[in-house]
Design a protein that fits this description.
The protein is 57% helix and 13% strand. With 322 residues, it is an alpha/beta fold. The protein has a five-stranded mixed β-sheet with strand order 3-2-1-4-5. It has a two-stranded antiparallel sheet with strand order 6-9. Helix 7 crosses helix 8. The longest helix has 30 residues, at 156-185. 32% of the residues are buried.
């Protein structure tokens, strides 16, 4: 166990840091969320003699990535990136009533000391580039849908400007799609993993790129259930005694972008592929409603993707009754 634990509450502009000492007491420090702030944090940690350190922070947005990568390169330092729902639940268990950045940093440090979460592995440069590309492409596609809807009801005075913006979006989406393909093709590791994912019926080019961006290294997950939980696709049940029998639902405590990317591929797999049709018929015969079947296929797709990446073997239809 590390003698020091550092909890960081991350914001766009600053980092609220709480260092738990070996005595159980805390030291607090606020630094800018910039390279200069990272150096100030290093100097403060050296002053506190925190040479062996376990750092924890929440996975909120993208503002945590730079400091996580910086600290992961620090000697004798373990970095863990935690699902915010875990910190919220831990705070409730500790009867925490105060909600400030300083209090949140202290709570994260306490969680780090008591739960010893698993280490976070930094993505490779190729993965980080691919993530940036697929996220940008998704943002432009969302913008295209919004502008298309506006154009349908736009007055003549603004319609021309919207039409020009749509033309620019079409060109930029095509450019980004090509950049994603070239990036994957030019990286031997990503190209081989793309070949594996491309063998799964139901997955298209864009979904494969998203899965590569976030699940390219299966060693980051212990098993397929952990991958499903990462995407928030694990089932959540609510039962109590003999009278409360809630319907199973997706937990949705995970990566919303992955869930969004898997919805349409799940529909394609269920209705246009042999293995998906068998999967749908099997669940329907057990009385499962359509929305539950769609969620189950989304979970199945991410688990099968993990399986082919981990095994290094392409999709085997006979393993799925097809």
């Amino acid at each position: 166990m590390h003698p020091f634990q550092l909890g960081i509450d991350v914001a766009k502009a600053k980092l609220d840091c709480a260092l738990r000492l070996t005595s159980g007491k805390f030291r607090h420090k606020v630094v800018d969320n910039t390279p200069a702030g990272f150096k100030a944090l290093d100097s403060w940690l050296a002053k506190e003699c925190a040479t062996t350190l376990h750092v924890c922070m929440e996975a909120t947005g993208t503002y945590w990535e730079a400091i996580a990568e910086h600290l992961a390169e620090r000697p004798a330092t373990t970095v863990s990136v935690i699902n915010p729902a875990q910190i919220k639940a831990f705070g409730a268990s500790q009867m925490v009533r105060t909600k400030t950045d300083k209090a949140d940093a202290k709570l994260i440090a306490q969680f780090c000391a008591e739960r010893t979460p698993v280490p976070w592995q930094a993505p490779t440069p190729a993965e980080k580039t691919l993530r940036a590309l697929v996220l940008r492409l998704d943002a432009l596609q969302t913008m295209h849908t919004q502008e298309s809807n506006r154009l349908e009801v736009a007055r003549e005075s603004v319609a021309e400007g919207i039409a020009k913006h749509l033309t620019w979006l079409d060109d930029e989406i095509a450019r980004l799609s090509k950049a994603i393909r070239n990036h994957i093709d030019n990286d031997p590791t990503l190209k081989d993993k793309h070949r594996l994912l491309d063998s799964i019926p139901g997955l298209g080019e864009r979904t494969t790129a998203v899965l590569l961006a976030f699940l390219a290294e299966p060693a980051r997950f212990g098993n397929a259930r952990q991958v499903a939980a990462f995407a928030g696709l694990d089932p959540r049940q609510h039962e109590s005694g003999s009278s409360v029998r809630g319907k199973p639902r997706l937990s949705k405590v995970g990566h919303s972008f992955l869930r969004k990317a898997l919805y349409m591929p799940a529909m394609v797999a269920l209705y246009r592929t042999d293995w998906g049709k068998l999967f749908r018929e099997r669940l329907a015969a057990r009385g499962k409603p359509p929305m539950l079947i769609i969620g189950a296929m989304m979970r199945k797709l991410v688990q099968v993707s993990y399986g082919v990446l981990k095994s290094g073997q392409t999709f085997q239809p006979e393993l799925h009754g097809a």
